[in-house]
């Protein structure tokens, strides 16, 4: 059985909620990623911050990324998957919530992220086509 841990990109890092968006952008550049999970002071998942969130939700709104925190950008119920979940559970979670990145948790700790690129490497063409159709469907 292929699990979330098998297909994830390891080494994901939390972005503390108190960090500013300019620092988040620097971390993304250093790590060569487009998203970071946001954690509260107890290292509990609050959401995911994307590079697009910084641009559209902060900069384009005329806000200062040096004065806006990641926690201010965390909206909605964060989604995640246990490291032992099988690939079908991963796909269901991502499809049902139309999300493109999914944090992987093991023993209450972040251990990795599953992204579109990870799915592309591990899914069959029909599985990937179904995922794309369901995640990118509008309506």
Automatic annotation (TrEMBL):
UniProt xrefs under InterPro entries: CBS_dom, CBS_dom_sf, Diverse_CBS-Domain
Q: SUPFAM superfamilies, alphabetically?
A: CBS-domain pair
Q: Which UniProt keywords apply?
A: CBS domain
* Residue intervals of the CBS domain: 8-65, 73-130
Q: Which CDD domains match?
A: CBS_pair_HRP1_like (cd04622)
Keyword Cell inner membrane applies: no
| Record has Hydrolase as a keyword | no
Q: What PANTHER family does the entry give?
A: CBS DOMAIN-CONTAINING PROTEIN, CBS DOMAIN-CONTAINING PROTEIN CBSX3, MITOCHONDRIAL
In its UniProt entry, what is this protein called? Hypoxic response protein Hrp1
- Source organism per entry reads Streptomyces hebeiensis
Question: What is the name of the gene encoding this protein?
Answer: hrp1
């Amino acid at each position: 059985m292929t699990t979330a841990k098998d297909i994830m990109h390891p080494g994901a890092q939390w972005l503390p909620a108190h960090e500013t968006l300019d620092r988040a952008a620097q971390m993304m550049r250093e790590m060569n990623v487009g998203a970071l999970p946001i954690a509260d002071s107890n290292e509990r998942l609050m959401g995911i911050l994307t590079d697009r969130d910084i641009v559209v939700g902060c900069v384009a709104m005329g806000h200062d990324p040096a004065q806006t925190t990641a926690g201010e950008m965390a909206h909605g119920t964060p989604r995640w998957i246990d490291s032992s979940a099988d690939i079908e559970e991963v796909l269901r979670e991502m499809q049902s919530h139309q999300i493109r990145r999914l944090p992987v948790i093991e023993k209450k700790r972040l251990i990795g992220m599953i992204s579109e690129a990870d799915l592309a490497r591990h899914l069959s063409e029909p599985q990937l086509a179904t995922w794309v159709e369901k995640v990118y469907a509008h309506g």
